[in-house]
Design a protein that fits this description.
Blueprint: H1 6-31, E1 36-49, E2 53-54, E3 57-58, E4 62-68, E5 73-78, E6 88-94, E7 106-113, E8 129-134, E9 139-144, E10 155-160, E11 166-170, E12 196-197, E13 203-207, E14 226-233, E15 238-246, E16 261-269, E17 275-283, E18 288-296, E19 321-327, E20 338-346, E21 352-358, E22 367-378, H2 380-387
Antiparallel strand pairs: 1-22, 2-3, 4-5, 5-6, 6-7, 8-9, 9-10, 10-11, 12-13, 13-14, 14-15, 16-17, 17-18, 18-19, 20-21, 21-22
Length: about 400
Amino acid sequence: MPRLSKPRKLSLIFIFIIPLILISFLISNFVFASSIVNSIEFIGQATLPTGLIFQKTEVGGLSGITYDAKNNLYYAISDDRGQKAPPRFYTLTIDLSKGKLTNNDVMPVAITNLLDNNNQPFLPKTTDTEGIALTNKDTIFVSSEGDVHRLVNPFIKEFALASGQTISTLPIPDKFLPDPQKQKGIRNNLAFESLTITPNQKFLFTATENALIQDGVAAKSGVGTSSRILVYNLLTKQPAQEFLYQTEPVTPLFNPTGKFASGLPDLLALDNEGHFLSIERSFTGLGFTVFLFQVSLDNATDIHNLDSIAKIDPDKIKPAEKKLLLDLRTLDVSLDNIEGLTLGAKLPDGQPSLILISDNNFNGLQQTQILAFKLKIESPLTRLLRRFKIPNF
């Protein structure tokens, strides 16, 4: 067989190598491009009873959760203000290996206390830790709502995963801080509940559970509220953008107690392009209403230069776009106070799981509820291949 000449060898190399490089480039960009959830399937629940003691500490107040895929562990933050034990997060195992979740599949395995700048546990009533997000550097970010009545500022801090030591603190824009005259800033217990980081680790998102005082009214029966999404650039660790998130109005059918609370307790970044899942949770007197939305910032207006949106023409501000993914009242479960969500372990069929968790408020009438779902997430690459009718897509 005759040998190929060098020019011909080079041309064949270019013919095969260049397309591979182009394909690799396209795939690498598609992998981190926008993703959408095609479907969601409930695969079970587990509960932890109120009063459960683990390592001499009561397990409760679990307001946020994040997943460590490297170690197949979950970290759940407690909103205990240091009254039952120092501010802390729990390490949990959640076994989804059978493709479903049952009561025996969730176990606490460790507790880590959060430490202040002096490497001491935070003093009681100086925190109200609600959100948690894991980085790829063995650290977590935690958000605290603070305490408006006591003029305790909210915070977003980075902690070492293993020791709980404070690593860094993100600056909070002045418009969010408590005001002694109550003319601006966060409302008490309605501040930074949510926390999530994009897959590329470049941006952190949090949001107020309800409107800032200067932005509009708090949620009430039949009336939604204007929450603000706050974006941080994690490369500079500075605030970058803000967006309007409008919650849905909820009207109880029957509310003999007269108690009502509603808002945005958590966000989950699906990609690096401003697409999320969100929870909207309402207490309606005799139970909870929980909505799960897909959220997009594609066309949303950046409002970080606006200290107040109350006097701005609403037509000039485009809020985040939302699409209802699931009304959890349609599930055959008694809903508790769902406040946290995270993508979890891959299921046996390769599909991603979604985990939701409830804050039991250390109330004997409530429990810690963990709900599991199977998601079908379609990436742009999958959509492209499916359109070209590529087999198996």
